[in-house]
Design a protein that fits this description.
Elements: E1 4-8, H1 20-28, E2 31-34, H2 37-46, E3 53-55, H3 61-73, E4 78-81, H4 93-102, E5 106-110, H5 115-122, E6 130-134, H6 140-150, E7 156-161, H7 163-177, E8 181-186, E9 194-199, H8 200-207, E10 216-220, H9 225-237, H10 241-249, H11 255-266, H12 270-281
Parallel strand pairs: 1-4, 1-5, 2-3, 2-4, 6-7
Antiparallel strand pairs: 7-10, 8-9, 8-10
Helix pairs in contact: 3-4, 7-8, 10-11, 11-12
Amino acid sequence: MEGKLYLCATPIGNLEDITFRVLKTLKEVDLIAAEDTRHSIKLLNHFGIDTPMTSYHEFNKYDKARYLVNEMLQGKNVAIITDAGTPGISDPGEELVRQCFDKGIEVSSLPGPAALITALTMSGQRTRRFAFEAFLPSDKKERANILEELKNETRTIILYEAPHHLLGTLRELLNSLGNRSITLCKELTKVHENANKTTIEELVLKYENEAPKGEFVLVIEGKSLEEKRQEEIDNYMEMEVAEHMDIYLKQGIDKKEAMKKVAKDRGVSKRDIYNELLKTEK
């Protein structure tokens, strides 16, 4: 009989956030795959868990995943944990899950702490729709592409950042997104937990004069639909009305319908478009 993979969420700061189900599972499985065994042994020792551990991290995730899958095919149950939070979120856990599905191995996720959800819910930003980007890539071209995409993102944006990169990232965000509302969350669930709702520009000024400390989650407001619509109107207004009309006429749309579409694009009345066309025809 095949074994099973358990994704076990571990505390992101406060040890009391671990669930009874996770503790029970970590005690009962045959093997625990940990992102950093030196870090995780402290957690296991704290709760009196002596289940064997093996390392599973970014630099061995493909080969080690194959090994772990083989162990499960032979009937062993495996739990995966990260240094903090839910496995599969901004860590190599997703590769192991993918390989398990490829081999028909059952996967179960045991819910628990996740920094992005913790930060989002306490941020004071909109929570219904959000886009999680984790850490921005270090590759300059890829990073620039993602920042360009985020310019028009209307959902709340969530990023992770380390203290030594925080100021540089804030400057990039200010340059790309403009001076948006942002909530900077740090030391989540710990004694000095803090959520500072302010603006990107204010944070740049703050950290130009003091060194950031702690691990950070950035929760940034998305572009408003009104702002996005105004930008669309501004772009259309740069065109002559006749040129704008031609776009629709070349699609086979009749003149009356084209005028309605142009008026809608530009945020004006159909009469305004008619009058503008009359001027150009004179």
